[in-house]
Specification:
The structure is a single chain. This protein is about 30% helix and about 20% strand. The protein is α/β, with parallel strands linked by helices. The chain folds into five domains: about 90 residues, 2-Layer Sandwich (Alpha-Beta Plaits), CATH 3.30.70; about 80 residues, Alpha-Beta Complex (DHBP synthase), CATH 3.90.870; about 170 residues, DHBP synthase; about 120 residues, Nucleotidyltransferase, domain 5 (2-Layer Sandwich); about 220 residues, Nucleotidyltransferase, domain 5. Strands 6, 7, 8, 9, 10, 11, 12, 13, 14, 15 and 16 form an eleven-stranded mixed beta sheet that branches. The protein is globular and about 90 Å long. Bound molecules: zinc ion (2 copies) and fe (iii) ion.
Length: about 750
């Protein structure tokens, strides 16, 4: 019977509401509120109708919006009143009926607290089962081959559920209802331990066997969610150094996995927001402030006051970490900048000389996905590498439009596919210099389009003619657009903040191809997604030998001195270097590139101050220069000047270089020089923002580019800009480095298709 006081309400909910336990959640709150009606999946979310007393429906509406399951993300709720009908109960409509085509695939999610409890409960049938999962946790993106997201189309297709698992899977009130990777020791994947030659080791428990190896200082390769890790006891310096030697990784810091959140503070300062990020379903690596206490091998993160920390996020990792030493180095299994290894046989052949044993299993990884890396700065968690746990959840745009694919840059590459209001960023692909990364890129490009069933009207690439990603774009039979690197950085920042602009953009970066053919990277752009004016840039400096100077900052320092002094000064860093030969090239202008890069300025100052002549990983000199400041900027500054010519401003570099040289000669410490240098840059950027604001009337400043990974510069600049009354836009959802570039390229592509694109002028 329909009572006279009943009403019926229809809710259309869009966002990540499929495959995340949303229907059982709605079922529970509807039944608890005594409501009748139904819920079913639709093209872009779920459709719900509930009928009952209006107070109950109000309560339902509130719970729907605020109490959803942990992995759901509601984008919009559309609520309308419809006429009452006769109904007996609340029902869950079957998946796969009607117009269900556009499902968002959830990311891979860390072990939830319910599964964790079962995993460690000796009376549970999944006690110590390394592949336990449920609707709220487990692998997703890395096991999906195609849509719909259903078990036959995942890498679990080879495992037939036992009757007990089958029952859970079909019960709407069970927390494993439609959990596609549902499995148990009877029916699911299995872990085994192999020795270095690939022979199966006869151990009663593969995980315990691997843990025993770790306690002995051995290197273990283990198959995780998105690829293999290499693990070693982080308190054993000898073992960590052996790993560095075998992996060919000289100094780049390793991340560690800490057994549980309660002991993180023994090693690092961990603020509540950072602790929340560590324990979140995305479970990223968080760069915490290293306390530098004993307990950790010095070779884990040399020269770094931050330590990359994560918690065990898969049941396999948790079991290992319970049995093994409490802090393990946990690093992607790859060589230098190659993609992470995912396949068992590939692991044995490529990591044979590195790992002493292999903890593997028979659930295939269909998509590579590295760990994500984040840092908390100025009160927000910020992505440095957006990958596992976040991909392929969309970045929500405030406007829809045509399908566009963007190919990203050359380093830290990601792709972006725009579909409707969703910006779908690929996982971290890496540096496009090697064949493996190239294959990974092609696979990701194809997979994005295939998975989300979207064919682009336009492919956007970087202006650099030599990038692999540019070459790939030009080979596709789709119209293309090349966009300037720093314009893409600016657009990326605007898109994730859902701001139209215009804004003053401080684009501080390593390398980006400029519209004049020189290398840009310290740019003040005034404009928006459609177009921007190059209002100011750093004074161009010579880079002798081009890219060699990036890896050997002493060469760069010579270039900066050459431009800044009429008589070359003698400095300690030049000793034992073939300086004469480099100066000859500079004098003749042979093989010399001009750059306005801010990243290179850091490298040059680091080399001039005697910090380091050569680097073994990207950004090393700049990172160490920042650490030398010990978290503070000075009060004094070096000479900084702006010069205007024909409406375009130049931020002079040579006066800064001359002052740095003076400071070195006066015996200033590296710490003092670094503090002064950071303060100088902040003052310079405040000054130029003021000029841009006077000229344009704009009071919003957007920050993007790889240099903003520098915590000291970022936090100081944000604070000072805000104190000066500016609204500051920065990245948090996508990286400020080139990992976020493809998002900016893609939205610029849409402005081009809308006939609004003006580019850089
Ligand atoms: Zn779970
Ligand atoms: Zn089973
Ligand atoms: Fe860049």
């Amino acid at each position: 019977m329909v009572s006279g006081t009943e009403i019926r309400q229809r809710f259309r909910v869009n966002g990540i509401v499929q495959g995340v336990g949303f229907r059982p959640f709605v079922y529970r709150i509807a039944v608890a509120g005594g409501l009748k009606g139904f819920i079913r999946n639709t093209a872009s979310g779920v459709l719900i109708e509930v009928q009952g007393e209006s107070a109950s429906i109000d309560g339902f509406s509130r719970q729907l919006r605020t109490e959803g399951p942990p992995l759901s993300k509601i984008e919009t709720v559309d609520e309308t009143t419809v006429s009452c009908i006769h109904e007996e109960a609340f029902t869950i409509g079957a998946s796969g009926e009607g117009d269900e085509v556009e499902t968002l695939i959830p990311p891979d999610i860390a072990l939830c607290s319910d599964c964790r409890r079962e995993l460690l409960d000796p009376s549970n049938r999944r006690f110590r089962y390394p592949f336990i999962n449920c609707t709220n946790c487990g692998p997703r993106y890395t096991i999906v081959g195609r849509l719909p997201y259903d078990r036959p189309f995942t890498s679990m297709h080879g495992f037939t559920m036992c009757p007990e698992c089958e029952r859970e899977y079909h019960d709407p009130l069970d927390r494993r209802f439609h959990a596609q990777p549902n499995a148990c020791p009877v029916c699911g994947p299995e872990a085994i331990l192999l020795d270095a030659s690939g022979e199966k080791l006869d151990v009663p428990d593969a995980v315990a066997g691997a843990a025993a190896m770790l306690r002995e200082g051995k290197i273990v390769a283990l198959k995780g969610v998105g690829g293999f890790h290499l693990a070693v006891d982080a308190s054993n310096d000898e073992a960590v150094r052996l790993l560095r030697e075998r992996k060919g990784r000289e100094a780049k810091p390793f991340a560690v996995m800490v057994r549980d959140i309660g002991i993180v503070s023994r090693y690092c300062n961990c603020y509540p927001a950072e602790a929340a990020a560590l324990a979140s379903p995305e479970a990223p690596i968080v760069l915490l402030r290293n306390r530098g206490t004993e307990g950790l091998a010095p070779s884990v993160a040399p020269g770094n006051d931050r330590l990359g920390v994560m918690l065990p996020y898969s049941p396999l990792h948790l079991l290992l970490s319970v049995d093994a030493p409490e802090v393990l180095v946990m690093t992607s299994a790859n060589f230098s900048e190659e993609p992470i290894v995912t396949d068992n046989l590939e692991a044995l052949s490529r990591l044979g000389g590195v790992a002493d044993c292999f903890l593997v299993h028979n659930r295939p990884i269909w998509l590579k996905c590295d760990d994500s890396v984040t840092i908390e700065l100025s009160g927000k968690l910020r992505q440095l590498r957006r990958s596992r746990g976040y991909v392929p959840a969309p970045v929500f745009l405030h406007e829809g439009g045509p399908v566009v694919l963007a190919t990203g840059g050359e380093l830290k590459n990601t792709l972006t596919l725009l579909k409707g209001t969703h910006a779908l960023l690929s996982q971290h692909i890496g540096d496009m210099k090697n064949y493996e990364a190239w294959k990974h890129f092609e696979q990701a490009a194809e997979h994005l389009q295939h998975l989300f069933q979207a064919l682009p009207e336009l492919i956007v690439h970087d202006l650099h003619p030599g990038y692999m990603t540019t070459e790939w774009a030009l080979k596709q039979s789709v119209p293309v657009l090349g966009v300037q690197h720093h314009h893409a950085h600016l657009a990326s920042c605007l898109a994730e903040n859902r701001v139209d602009g215009p804004v003053i953009g401080l684009m501080l970066d390593g390398t980006g191809y400029g519209t004049d053919g020189t290398i840009w990277g310290g740019e003040v752009l005034v404009g928006d997604i459609a177009g921007a004016e190059r209002f100011a840039a750093f004074e161009p400096m010579p880079m002798p030998g081009g890219d060699i100077a990036v890896m050997q900052p002493w060469r760069l320092a010579l270039g900066y001195l050459f431009r800044s002094f009429s008589v070359m000064p003698e400095l300690p860093f030049m000793q034992g270097k073939p300086a004469g030969a480099v100066l000859e090239l500079l004098g003749k202008g042979i093989s010399v590139h001009e750059t306005s890069s801010c990243g290179r300025l850091f490298d040059a100052v680091a080399a001039l101050s005697g910090l380091r002549d050569e680097i073994s990983y990207e950004g090393q000199a700049a990172i160490e220069l920042m650490h030398a400041a010990k978290g503070e900027t000075g009060t004094g500054t070096f000479t900084h000047e702006l010069r205007e010519e024909g409406g375009r401003w130049t931020m002079l570099v040579s006066p800064i270089i001359r002052d740095v040289v003076r400071a070195v000669r006066q015996g200033s410490s590296l710490c003092e020089i670094s503090r002064m240098f950071h303060r100088t840059l902040v003052s310079l950027f405040i000054d130029i923002a003021g000029r841009a604001s006077e000229a344009s009337g704009i009071r919003t400043v957007a920050l993007s580019g790889g240099v903003f990974q520098n915590a000291l510069l970022f936090e100081t600049l944000v604070r000072d800009l805000e104190t000066a009354g500016y609204r500051v836009l920065a990245h948090s959802l996508v990286p400020s480095n080139d990992g976020g570039l493809s998002l900016g390229q893609a939205v610029i592509g849409r402005s081009y298709l809308a006939g609004k694109y003006k580019g850089i002028h």
